[in-house]
Every structure is written in C-alpha cells, then in structure tokens.
Write a structure and sequence with these properties.
Length: 196
C-alpha cells in the first residue's frame, strides 16, 4: 500500500456555492454529468418544503405549491416564513435569505444562474436575488401577499449541466417525500403544476 502525505499546500478552501458546483452529488445524489440533476434538485427543494427538519421548522400545517416553468426552471412556495425573525427582520444565513434552515434550496441556488427568494409575514416582505448561490444585493422590502410564506424561483445553470438535462416530465417518478411522508404527523398539501 502506498502512503500519501498531505500538507497545507494540498488543501484548497472553496466557498459554499463553489463546493456544491464541484460536487453536486453530495447534495443531490448525482453529478454534473447526469441528466437527472435538474430533477433531483427540484425533488430535494420540494421535499424539504414538505418535510423541513423539525429543529428549524415550527409545527404548522404546511401548504406547498411547486411549478415547473421550463426544463430548467421551477418555483416552490410554502407557508413557512422562517427567514424572518419575530421582529420582522430578515435572518441572513449563507449570506442570503436562503440559509441553513433551507439548505436544499441554497444548494439548488448554487447550481442556478438566477434565484429569487421572497419571504413575508404580517404585511412585511423581503426579496433577494442570487446568481450562482451568491446574493446580488441585500434583501429589499416588497409589498407581500396576505398571510405568510416563502417563494423561491430557480433557473438552473444550463452551462453547468449535462447536455439534454431537464426536469423529468414523469413527475410520478419523483420521490418528493421519501420516508418522511409515512412518519409525518399532521396534514400537508402539495399542488404541483407543470407549465411546460
């Protein structure tokens, strides 16, 4: 067996988004060469909205709406407003409104050429645009719809993906819940629209 020696010169520090773009399989289960990457990214974001980690999501009846707007474009809405503090001030994580509480969405934003996130509650709303997972500016106020929620629009980066990669048309093949649906107590609803 050959021994390998490493030194500090062999270590390269990469920022979060770059790490996702180099090794998306760690987040989505497939690499850049897989035409399944868009479907997996979509499935992970929707699945997390349906079943967020209990340590970051308060108990509530979750309503999720997902739209596929193109082969590489989708949006996901849910009724959680976890990026707003109790005082209505944005909670910034990973430099944006998509923080650790939504790590799947943040990972999907890293493989997207454009991402727009909106979060609102009690008449207070903030919007932020990202490119390749990096904020293009600070969150800006906007006039939100009624209620509370988060909407994130993703345009996956075609230049990064395998030729012909697209969100599957066979939406029944997507495992949006995994084992979490069977374990879930309470009600949740998903409305899925394919606008292609």
């Amino acid at each position: 067996m050959t021994e390998h020696w490493y030194s500090a010169a062999d270590i390269r520090v990469v920022e979060g988004g770059e790490a996702v773009r180099r090794r998306p399989g760690m987040y989505f289960g497939v690499g850049l060469d897989s035409p399944e990457l868009p479907s997996r990214a979509f499935g992970q974001v929707v699945g997390w909205s349906l079943h967020p980690a209990t340590r970051v999501a308060p108990a509530h009846t979750l309503r999720v709406e997902a739209e596929i707007r193109g082969d590489l474009a989708f949006s996901v809405f849910d009724d959680a407003s976890d990026a707003l503090g109790v005082d209505g001030v944005p909670i910034i994580g990973f430099g944006s409104l998509i923080g650790p509480h939504r790590w799947c969405g943040w990972a999907a934003s890293a493989v997207s050429s454009r991402t727009v996130v909106e979060v609102w509650r009690d008449g207070v709303g903030f919007r932020q645009e990202l490119a390749v997972g990096r904020p293009l500016g600070d969150p800006e106020r906007f006039v939100p719809p009624a209620g509370a929620g988060t909407r994130v629009e993703f345009e996956l980066d075609e230049a990064l993906l395998a030729p012909g990669a697209a969100i599957t048309a066979d939406l029944g093949s997507l495992d949006l819940c995994g084992s979490a649906c069977a374990e879930s107590a309470g009600s949740a609803g998903l409305r899925l629209r394919d606008l292609r």
